[in-house]
């Protein structure tokens, strides 16, 4: 190789090296930008979910601690009224029954916003209570298996409970499943939730911005808030399986 060829060869090597360095720089910069964007997105999602849950908690507390006692006091005052005739007595009784209905509905709304059993006893009892209550109203047979009713951090319990609610809702309304199995397993420093239904399934490449797509986005967002991992498997006509792997610290 003569001198001229060596110069051309060295120039090519320098050019390749420079292009490689530039490529690596832009690749690393892109990875950093994606990581920063993901961090900002997760922070935004976490803030939105936290705000939502705080508002739910506040409304539930207001209904339970303020509106409930007020309605009970009104009912007591109405029942103490002496009707001058049968018509007035019947009206008083009817009004009292209406107030009972309002109190009952208010308690249901308060419980839907933030179940008392979730606050007092934790995730597993709350899921079991949820399944028991919706059981008579749905043709889907739902079973729950777990290896521990341990308590977790409040944020984990709330978000995991919302995840189960979303999965159950999807299985009943969208998948039209006959059966749904829920398995909650606690391992050292990890919480695993897996579900399996025998519903119609779906093609995740085609759901786009449909309700099923929004449901998947909600499940992913809740999992991201807990720094967990979310996976699913579904095929048309073959049901759907969800898996959630959540890191945690147990809390008494």
Folded structure, characterized:
By secondary structure, the chain is an alpha+beta fold. The protein folds into 2 domains: 3-113, no CATH class; 118-247, 2-Layer Sandwich (Heat Shock Protein 90), CATH 3.30.565.10. It is built from 6 helices and 5 strands. The chain has helices at 3-79, 86-113, 116-121, 123-134, 154-174, 211-225, and strands at residues 141-146, 179-187, 190-197, 229-234, 240-247. Strands 1-2-3-5-4 form a 5-stranded mixed sheet, covered by helices on one side. Strand 1 (141-146), helix 5 (154-174) and strand 2 form a beta-alpha-beta unit. The longest helix has 77 residues, at 3-79. The protein is elongated and about 125 Å long. The termini are far apart.
């Amino acid at each position: 190789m003569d001198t001229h060829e060596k110069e051309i060869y060295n120039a090519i090597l320098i050019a390749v090296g420079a292009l490689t360095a530039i490529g690596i720089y832009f690749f690393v910069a892109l990875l950093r930008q994606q990581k920063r964007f993901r961090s900002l997105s997760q922070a935004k999602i976490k803030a939105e979910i936290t705000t939502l849950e705080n508002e739910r908690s506040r409304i539930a507390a207001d209904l339970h601690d303020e509106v409930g006692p007020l309605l009970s006091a009104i009912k007591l005052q109405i029942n103490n009224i002496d009707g001058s005739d049968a018509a007035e007595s019947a009206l008083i009784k009817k009004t009292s029954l209406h107030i009972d209905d309002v109190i009952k509905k208010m308690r249901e709304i308060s419980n839907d916003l933030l179940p008392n059993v979730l606050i007092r006893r934790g995730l597993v009892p709350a899921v079991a209570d949820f399944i028991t209550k919706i059981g008579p109203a749905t043709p889907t047979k739902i079973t729950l298996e777990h290896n521990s009713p341990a308590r977790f951090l409040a944020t984990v319990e709330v978000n995991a409970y919302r995840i189960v609610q979303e999965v159950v809702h999807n299985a009943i309304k969208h998948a039209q499943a006959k059966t749904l199995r829920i398995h909650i397993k606690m391992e050292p420093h990890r919480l695993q939730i897996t579900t399996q239904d025998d519903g119609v399934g779906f093609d995740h490449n085609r759901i786009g911005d449909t309700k099923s797509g929004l449901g998947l986005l909600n499940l992913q967002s809740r999992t991201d808030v807990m720094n967990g991992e979310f996976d699913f498997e579904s095929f048309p006509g073959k049901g759907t399986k969800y898996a959630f792997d959540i890191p945690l610290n147990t809390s008494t």
